[in-house]
């Protein structure tokens, strides 16, 4: 570890579990103060106890429009500054499209697309005013390859990859970096929603990643000097037939 994030304030949505939690741990190890946003209050309380003043925990269900709108102002009230915003919270809908129900589709598209776009919109004025900032988005390999076992989920991540490419061009003149990480299957609770036969196949092929692998990629991007920008990391699992 290089202590490269000492003095920085980072925000991680969906930071109480899985990839978000690994991102939190990676940034803490680099010396950042981390605002952990999640709907899981019990997990947040445990993280607050564990990390003390190095973290700020913020309970919010980002699918609640009022909570989503209040997020950035609530954070700035507590920390005054946001250097890094990692939009990570996401849901999964997999399997045959004909089996996907309205509520699951709406919630997933709302969290994976609308909430990310709104959170990034809300943090940008602060970063533009300061002339610096890093925005990271957890996308997915499913946003690069047409994965036929998850058309709804894959659509949300293709949308995110388009968002990353376009908003980056809009805000880079203001000194703001926008990057994404696109992992293949990672061992987290989200994976339990994968179609069972797909999960069995990935396990058999030994192609599952650890959340800490993803955090390593995020920290690598964040700790590059600003004139050597690594923008998007696509993490291809070995032995995965894509
Ligand atoms: P996870 O379920 O372990 O963690 C998701 C976290 O988000 C949880 O702590 C949960 O409480 C929180 N969350 C969910 N809905 C929320 C809401 N409405 N408001 C606030 N918090 C909410 O899942 P994960 O695998 O770590 O997923 C994180 C991101 O990684 C997602 O965007 C997902 O699409 C992406 N991703 C996951 C995989 C994988 O295989 N696990 C692969 C590629 C990308």
TrEMBL record:
What CDD domains does this protein's entry cite? SDR_c (cd05233)
Its domain of life reads Bacteria
What name does UniProt use for this protein? Ribitol 2-dehydrogenase
Classification from the root reads: Bacteria, Pseudomonadati, Pseudomonadota, Gammaproteobacteria, Oceanospirillales
Database matches in InterPro entries: NAD(P)-bd_dom_sf, Sc_DH/Rdtase_CS, SDR_fam
Cited PROSITE patterns: ADH_SHORT (PS00061)
Gene this protein is translated from: rdh
